[in-house]
């Protein structure tokens, strides 16, 4: 097998000779450069080294003593380092050179593209010119590394990374190793690919996969909605032209809440003695 055919993988090569800018390594037939930037300890001529092979900016195979967690056919979690809307996102796999996940392998809508710092589960693919690119893990690959959830996990909070996204929902791999699905009705907005999210398990399927909701629990949601409404009221010096009789579309436009959620939030504020309604307006209830 030629050196080029080993690009994207680790192999054992012998240190053939030193050069001003690094070392030449050999498999007995071909030489490949190990640049000084890719050397992480003292090496000697004749020594056998385990190295990772990739292609430099001029298309030449080059070696690194830094062995990435991922390789062609081997998957791992890697961090997004840069986003280029015209070509895709770049990922740090531990080498001097970041790896591209091309735009064709990313969601059609750029609003759910990963951002810098997000995490993706990928492997490497090698194209016809022996250039390395990132390849996202398929659903089957995620399934192969996942752990089955037990009934005791029901209603528990979980955190995880979005590994696939679509209009109908998002797919999550949790820190516990559960493979889950977030239906579009269980999220306020569509999370990004690679985004870390927190939710709770609302169903456990026969196969051990889970359904997750990113929406707050009812009491948490009520508290948040009440705080949101009260904050708006106070921003208007304690008076606002909204009550539980207001039109649903007006409520939605101003607060981003359904009329039902708004009425519950307002009802809590009234019960807590913070507001009262009069003449189509809601007012702050001040201590007498």
TrEMBL record:
Residues 155-217 form the S1 motif domain. Belongs to the CvfB family. Transmembrane segments: none annotated. One of its GO terms (molecular function) is nucleic acid binding. This is S1 motif domain-containing protein.
